[in-house]
From TrEMBL:
Organism per entry: Apaloderma vittatum (Bar-tailed trogon)
Gene Ontology CC, one term: integrin complex
Pfam families in UniProt: EGF_2, EGF_integrin, I-EGF_1, Integrin_b_cyt, Integrin_B_tail, Integrin_beta
Protein's name in the database: Integrin beta
SUPFAM superfamilies: EGF/Laminin, Integrin beta tail domain, Integrin domains, vWA-like
Transmembrane segments: 679-701
Family: Belongs to the integrin beta chain family.
PANTHER family given in the database record: INTEGRIN BETA SUBUNIT, INTEGRIN BETA-1
Disulfide bonds: 156-162, 210-250, 384-641, 412-416, 427-439, 436-475, 441-450, 452-466, 481-486, 483-518, 488-503, 505-510, 524-529, 526-557, 531-540, 542-549, 563-568, 565-611, 570-580, 583-586, 590-599, 596-673, 615-649
Keyword Nucleotide-binding part of the UniProt annotation: no
Alphabetical UniProt keywords: Calcium, Cell adhesion, Cell junction, Cell membrane, Cell projection, Disulfide bond, EGF-like domain, Glycoprotein, Integrin, Magnesium, Membrane, Metal-binding, Myogenesis, Phosphoprotein, Receptor, Repeat, Signal, Transmembrane, Transmembrane helix
Region forming the signal peptide: none
Domain of life: Eukaryota
BP-aspect Gene Ontology terms: cell adhesion mediated by integrin; cell migration; cell-cell adhesion; integrin-mediated signaling pathway; muscle organ development
Length: 733
């Protein structure tokens, strides 16, 4: 009875939270988790050169752990730590593969004494060193060599005594006797060919795959490839009429490669595969002329190095030592082919706190002997294998024989499936296996309870049971008709469910409020909201709670409105606000709160003594000036007030109530007070005025006196002249 009508059996599988929300008891939920189990965890070896303890190569451990089991559930990564430590005094096998074409004549003389000299140098690195020697020239067919009888006997010109051309010869299998190396190499003679590129790839392939003849051990394997020329590769064999691809198998008879005329040269990718499979690290000792070519080749062959060979190979020992140190200072992890749907990622923890991820997470550089590095490896199954069988992958450091074997076990079924009851009576008289609370029908049976036979069911007859009355839609187009019953389809969002006899119901097409189905205040059942208590409406967005509508006087909406869905609808147009208490046109809002604002903002006024008891019903914010007061454009009703305080100063404030019924006052922190007379300027002004007026009067008086004196003087002069004229006249007459 866990499933709703019409829900498919697969709806029993869901994420944990969804199953709990649907009412599935925790004890009935199967939720298997992946884990890891280490089967072999041998500690890495700690020993030094010259130690009394002599260990066989197979007893030396450089990688830990060696074997483990990972149980993988789809989408759940399993992580384990891998430790690598370069062991000191680790055995080394070195095979020297030399080009014996005529241009290498002077090089051969220097290599003849290589065995003992190299032994002495390698003793500084390891006490267990073996060396071998092989040579190559070219395929023994035209146009690579001359096939005339005389040239086959001695391909060199003049009095030069050269050996017959050959493809590859294993002169000396790996040995710890340096003198034997000198002796056998000393007997070798130069040969010759016609073209410049050599057949070295044939030789490398045979050295890699003929492990028994070469004598490779499960230790560090080094292949020194010495030449002063380029190389032939896959496809070049067509020049000699050779079209069969190289088969990558050993073809040594009496230490000679016998199939060079039959198989083409190997490709670079083929060589990379075989060198990697056989854990061989390659050192290319080539002359300066071909450095660029072999450096490009090195980039294609993992764990390989290139050294510059002097014209006569006199520096070959130092070249080998430098290349070995370069190769051994880097560890690169590789894994075998992964099963379909399985991914792997690496994170490295190298020396000096250097960490890396992705492709660089596979390697660590600058590792010295005795250094320990760690890798964190994530393995994830993104899908189950078709047959659910176990798989095995291996991880190993390139160039090393040791590896980590990982057995992958996939969790693709619940435990309850193995506890099913075959032919259960619960499945229509034994027509199925009852497992995990549902029927798994036997072959030929269908239906939720396996009640139908595929041979007897006529789909057209059954479809009639899956259509609603007066409808042509089968299962409302939201499911399929199986055995006369609708099985509703699942949606990508597992929380969204179709249900009902005809899949006509769902839980996601109800009305919404604030972007939520049923406003988050109800449950969507068959496209209709079933609201929680105290909520109503088609989207459960109407609250029946009247508490938000209660005004400060205890009345609902201040007696001036009705409470609808938790919000006041004010019936008196003069009043507004969340509880119909704000009236912008009413006188008294400012007057009512004047004394409380005055006492709280300026600590004065009639309510100064009782301020803390009577005036704490609003929040207050001080602002610098009237320009900073809230403006009427804000959503909450707002009153601007201008009142006089006890000192006849004007103070300004606003009063507003927000949607939660909280009153808030913004008040200008400095009152606007009329300023009193300034005595000093007044007195100074009066004195200055008097002085200035006095000076002005004196100046006017002085000016008038000057004008008067000048007039009197002019009058005097005139009278004087007249008196003089009268005297002269009397004397004349």
């Amino acid at each position: 009875d866990f499933l709703q009508e019409g829900e498919p059996t697969s709806a029993r599988c869901d994420d944990l939270a969804a199953l709990k929300s649907k009412g599935c008891p925790v004890e009935d939920i199967e939720n298997p988790r992946g884990d890891k189990r280490v089967l072999e965890d041998k500690e890495v070896t700690n020993r030094k050169i010259g130690a009394a303890e002599k260990l066989d190569p197979e007893d030396i451990t450089q990688i830990q752990p060696q074997k483990l089991v990972l149980k993988l559930r789809v989408g759940e990564p399993q992580t384990f730590s891998l430790k690598f430590k370069r062991a000191e005094d680790y055995p080394i096998d070195l095979y020297y593969l030399m080009d014996l074409s005529y241009s290498m004549k002077d090089d051969l003389e220097n290599v003849k004494s290589l065995g003992t000299a190299l032994m002495l140098e390698m003793e500084k690195i390891t006490s267990d060193f073996r060396i071998g020697f092989g040579s190559f020239v070219e395929k023994t067919v035209m146009p690579y060599i001359s096939t005339t009888p005389a040239k086959l006997r001695n391909p060199c010109t003049g009095d030069q005594n050269c050996t017959s051309p050959f493809s590859y010869k294993n002169v000396l299998s790996l040995t710890s006797e340096g003198n034997k190396f000198n002796e056998l190499v000393g007997k070798q003679h130069i040969s010759g060919n016609l073209d410049s590129p050599e057949g070295g790839f044939d030789a490398i392939m045979q050295v890699a795959v003929c492990g028994d003849q070469i004598g490779w051990r499960n230790v560090t394997r080094l292949l020194v490839f010495s030449t002063d020329a380029g190389f032939h590769f896959a496809g070049d064999g067509k020049l000699g009429g050779i079209v069969l691809p190289n088969d990558g198998k050993c073809h040594l008879e009496n230490n000679m490669y016998t199939m060079s005329h039959y198989y083409d040269y190997p490709s670079i990718a083929h060589l990379v595969q075989k060198l990697s499979e056989n854990n061989i690290q390659t050192i290319f000792a080539v002359t300066e002329e071909f450095q660029a070519v072999y450096k490009e080749l090195k980039n294609l062959i993992p764990k390989s190095a290139v050294g510059t060979l002097s014209s006569n190979s006199s520096n070959v020992i130092q070249l080998i030592i430098d290349a070995y140190n370069s190769l051994s200072s880097e560890v690169i992890l590789e894994n075998t082919k992964l099963p379909k749907g399985v991914t792997i990622s690496y994170k490295s923890f190298c020396k000096n706190g250097v960490n890396d991820t992705q492709e660089d997470g596979r390697k660590c550089s600058n590792i010295s002997i005795g250094d320990e590095v760690r890798f964190e490896i994530n393995v994830t199954a993104n899908e189950c294998p078709k047959k659910g069988q176990n798989e095995t992958i291996k991880i190993k450091p390139l160039g090393f024989t040791e590896e980590v074997e990982i057995n992958l076990q996939f969790i693709c079924e619940c435990q309850c499936q193995s506890e099913g009851e075959p032919n259960s009576p619960a499945c229509h008289e034994g027509n199925g296996t009852f497992e995990c609370g549902a029927c798994r029908c036997n072959e030929g049976r269908i239906g939720r309870l396996c009640e139908c036979s595929t041979d007897e069911v006529n789909s057209e007859d059954m479809d009639a049971y899956c259509r609603r009355e007066n409808s042509t839609e089968i299962c409302s187009n939201n499911g399929e008709c199986i055995c006369g019953q609708c099985v509703c389809k699942k949606r990508e969002n597992t929380n969204e469910v179709y249900s009902g006899k005809y899949c006509e119901c769902d839980n996601f097409n109800c009305d919404r409020s604030n972007g939520l189905i049923c406003g988050g205040n109800g449950i969507c059942k068959c496209r209709v909201c079933e609201c929680f208590p105290n909520f109503t409406g088609s989207a459960c967005d109407c609250s029946l709670d009247t508490f938000p509508c209660i005004a400060s006087n205890g009345q609902i909406c201040n007696g001036r409105g009705t409470c609808e869905c938790g919000t006041c609808n004010c019936t008196d147009p003069k009043f507004q606000g969340p509880t119909c208490e704000m009236c912008q046109t009413c006188l008294g809002v400012c007057t009512e709160h004047k004394d409380c604002v005055q006492c709280r903002a300026f600590d004065k006024g009639e309510k100064k003594e009782t301020c803390s008891q009577e005036c704490m019903h609003f929040n207050m914010t001080r602002v610098e000036s009237r320009d900073h007061l809230p403006q009427p454009v804000q959503p909450n009703p707002l009153s601007h007030c201008k009142e006089k305080d006890v000192d006849d100063c004007w103070f300004y404030f606003t009063y507003s109530v927000n949607a939660n019924g909280e009153a808030h006052v913004h008040v200008v922190e400095t009152p606007d007070c009329p300023s009193g007379p300034d005595i000093i300027p007044i007195v100074a002004g009066v004195v200055a005025g008097i002085v200035l007026i006095g000076l002005a009067l004196l100046l006017i008086w002085k000016l008038l006196m000057i004008i008067h004196d000048r007039r009197e003087f002019a009058k005097f002069e005139k009278e004087k002249m007249n008196a003089k004229w009268d005297t002269v006249s009397q004397e004349t007459f």
